[in-house]
Specification:
Shape: elongated
CATH architecture: Up-down Bundle
Number of strands: 2
Structural class: mainly alpha
Strand order of the largest sheet: 1-2
Distance between the termini: 65 Å
Order of helices and strands: HHEHHEHHH
CATH class: Mainly Alpha
CATH topology: Four Helix Bundle (Hemerythrin (Met), subunit A)
Strand content: under 5%
Radius of gyration: 20 Å
Helix content: 55-70%
Number of helices: 7
């Protein structure tokens, strides 16, 4: 008499179903990722710099999205390949991550709206460029990036895997920090001492911390 055990592929499918879809009435993390991606695609279509603006992007937008795409792909693979690294309380992690994701997305879009026509997806400086230092820009210089980082950290928590959390945070945060340096260099060149003074009294991403 032979005993048949489930194949590894079936076990992996069951595992990802349990980790990703444990809450019937809450969105799948993959759907959250798709929502974020579509919102960014909308910005790419509607918020490119105008022809007369001077580009300082240095292809950072391409690098940023390459890092995001690769990190997402690798992070999802970790769920399949290393089910043993599932977090101990996936439901709690999901709810925490879901709140972070929504909060990050809300902060990003509020900050984009507040910046108005001065927001572009590529780093560029126009002749009428001016410093915005009120609202969400009062204490931090890059609230749109803070919102994006919060959204990705929240998404990582929703997947409920330690390795996925690692792959969806470290490379993406690193890519955002590199882009911030490019952006601040361009703004310093364009706005001079006014922006330098703004840098001295504010933080980059986290109020009063960093």
């Amino acid at each position: 008499m032979s005993i048949h055990t489930p194949s590894r592929r079936i076990l992996r499918r069951e595992h990802i179903f349990l980790v990703v879809n444990f809450s019937m009435r809450l969105p799948d993390p993959l759907l959250l990722g798709a929502i974020y991606g579509l919102s960014e695609l909308y910005l790419v279509v509607t918020r490119r710099s105008r022809a007369q603006a001077v580009s300082h992007d240095r292809r950072s937008i391409i690098l940023l999205w390459t890092v995001i795409a690769v990190s997402l792909w690798l992070g999802i693979q970790m769920i399949w390949l290393f089910p043993s690294t599932t977090v101990p309380y996936p439901r709690g992690f999901y709810f925490f991550g879901f709140i972070l994701f929504l909060g990050g997305l809300a902060l990003r879009w509020y900050s984009i709206g507040y910046l108005g026509r001065y927001f572009t997806v590529d780093v560029s400086i126009s002749a009428e460029h001016k410093l915005i230092d009120s609202g969400p820009y009062r204490h931090i210089r890059h609230p749109t990036y803070t919102g994006a980082v919060l959204a990705f950290v929240g998404l990582a928590f929703c997947f409920g895997n330690w390795l996925t959390l690692l792959f969806l945070t470290v490379p993406i945060i690193g890519a955002f920090l590199w882009r911030i340096r490019i952006e601040e260099r361009a703004l310093l060149e364009a706005l001079g001492e006014k922006y330098h003074a703004y840098m001295r009294r504010t933080k980059r991403l986290i109020p009063w911390v960093y």
